[in-house]
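User: Can you model how zinc ion sits in this protein?
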Amino acid sequence: MSFSQTVKKEILAQAIAAPCCVAAACYGIACFGKYFDTRGLILHTENAQVALWAKAMYKQAGIDGKVYVKSKSAHIYEFAVKDPFEVEKMLAMFDHTGEETALRIGHGNLSCGGCFSAFVAAAFLSCGTIVNPQKGYMLEFVSARYSLMRDFEALLQSHGFAPKYTTRNGANVLYFKASEQIEDLLTLMGAGASALEIMQLKVYRDLRNRANRITNCETANIDKTVAANREVLEAIQYLAGQGALETLPEPLQEAARLRRAHPDLSLAELAAASLQPVSKSGLNHRLRKLKDMAETLKERQSAKPASAR
Ligand SMILES: [Zn+2]
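Assistant: Here's the modeled complex, given as structure tokens:
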């Protein structure tokens, strides 16, 4: 099931009881359906449950409509109010003539906060989609009606939402890309569990990003430590091989012993592991001295004639 279908299923499970809110849901279906005029109302949907819900809502409002299977293979279902008597009742209920050249939202059809929720939910069921939050954040409403969509945009804005408007293939699109807005909208429409899913996914993603950052950082440090230690260890190895190690002052011998005993520790950790108190910079100084001595010794060796080696 797509995330859109999950959200729609959750919205459909919500009971709308107050008569004003039921009428607002019906009005949302009318506005965002295929057509709504003197011929009546037609909503096409790929979701049979949405068509059945529309029928139930209209029934609750006292208007009879029918559900048809338009195309079984393409999964297109139709909810329609076509009977002239029912159409007349419907137009009167919404205070529309059905002859409007451009459909505008009649705000008289939204009387309480629940009405607004029901209207938006019906709009989403009729013409909305949401991208799977695993892939990104995008919720949109698509309609062929320009004035209606600009009215809807203003209505959403007046309730604190900030939809963006664009056109796609001649259709009007109102969309949201901010995850917080999408969460709020889902909650408003009655899809609280879906909103929670997005929030949890975000928390998980943040944690994972932070963990990755820490790991990357640590890995880089470990690599750096290993490379630096290797040079010192090679120098100590060389000095030992040349029998030079035991001729060195005791603090240098101790530093060499320490580094050989703990080849993988960082400088700070090595200083902490020392039995003799030594600072990080003091230890660094000694290890560098060992490296320099090995360098000097190597240079001296290669300067000697081959016969003397
Ligand atoms: Zn209401």
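A couple of observations from the model: The chain has eleven helices and eight strands. The longest strand covers residues 40-45.
User: Helpful, thanks.
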